[in-house]
Amino acid sequence: MQYHNIILFASGRGSNIQAILDHFKDNPAFVPRLIVCNRPGIGAIDIARDHGIPHIIIDRQNFKSVEFLEKIISLEPSLLILAGFLWKIPDALVQAFPNRIINIHPALLPRYGGKGMYGAHVHQAVIDAQDKESGITIHYVNEHYDEGNLICQVHCPVIPGDTPDTLAGRIHRLEHYFFPRTIEFLLHNMTE
Prior knowledge:
Layout: E1 4-10, H1 15-23, E2 30-37, H2 43-51, E3 55-57, H3 60-63, H4 66-74, E4 79-82, H5 91-96, E5 101-105, H6 119-128, E6 133-140, E7 150-157, H7 164-191
Parallel strand pairs: 1-2, 1-4, 2-3, 4-5
Antiparallel strand pairs: 5-6, 6-7
Helix pairs in contact: 1-7, 6-7
């Protein structure tokens, strides 16, 4: 059996991390080695503690440090998974793990991507534009916000009367279902 070391990154409550851990709970080949957070006191830290997964809290300076890069490399990850992580990944990290860093975005890229486009900001922009559909995009990470090669997109309707919260609920259901399964697909294809 090939084992896959996984590093998860989060900036918030960690609902996507929880969905991923739930999906892989009976799969011993999926080995979450570290959860990287950029804010203290967030839900993702509680999830790390509940599951006995080491976690670290980083600031912008140590995120770009050689020491952080070396720590990540030393864990020999198959994938680095951005699950609601809001910072741009340093170029050195992207270059160290080409096509092995993935992100989930709560809209249909290339629309509504880029710096500052996250969470309710995205959903409000979709509603303001009177789009008839939204969805999620899972993509590889490159040196630019939300511009890496697409892996998967899943669409959902924007319903008349939607608010950012109601649309977010629909988007979260898509994320929690499709993100773990896309990760599973990518890891399976790494072993073939």
